């Protein structure tokens, strides 16, 4: 469980950092648009930097997304099954599907990253960027995803042995959508309270 908590902490930190990559990609997109409109010039480097950052944010956050159970799941039958059966399905999925998939991607992608680093391969587009930094996101992202899969596997085994909490229970951290809705609700309540106070003073 200590190993599981360490992985959870790692992916939580990565998730908090990844949001800044989205901000950076948005800022570069805005700067590129301004430069193109004002100075009638642009560069493929701006465009490639945007999808480099998007690739990193998408892949690096895969483990964070699994930690918060935000991956798309089609629970037509699974949600109707007993809790222990659901946990066993997750165990089989993490052990026999997720882990081998991640290992295959790591096995195939890491040599490509090393080769690109050694050769200094550049983009084929004029003014493009060097390639290995964006390819590095592939093994890093799948390594974080595999580690989080192991963490979830540990949690489910501990639950079956009666040594851990329900891994399928309600998460303590709210999703971004839930936090946004709660913030809007508080804002509306504050606005209503202010309007009511102003009306009472009249």
UniProtKB/TrEMBL annotation:
Q: Name one GO cellular component term.
A: plasma membrane
Keyword entries, A-Z: Cell inner membrane, Cell membrane, Membrane, Transmembrane, Transmembrane helix, Transport
Report domain Tripartite ATP-independent periplasmic transporters DctQ component positions. 27-157
Membrane topology of the entry: Multi-pass membrane protein
Positions of transmembrane segments: 49-67, 87-110, 130-147
**Where would you find this protein in the cell?**
Cell inner membrane
- Similarity-based family: Belongs to the TRAP transporter small permease family.
Q: Which PANTHER family match?
A: 2,3-DIKETO-L-GULONATE TRAP TRANSPORTER SMALL PERMEASE PROTEIN YIAM, SLL1102 PROTEIN
- Known role: Part of the tripartite ATP-independent periplasmic (TRAP) transport system.
Q: How does it assemble?
A: The complex comprises the extracytoplasmic solute receptor protein and the two transmembrane proteins.
Q: What is this protein called?
A: TRAP transporter small permease protein
Species:
Quisquiliibacterium transsilvanicum
Specify the taxonomic lineage.
Bacteria, Pseudomonadati, Pseudomonadota, Betaproteobacteria, Burkholderiales
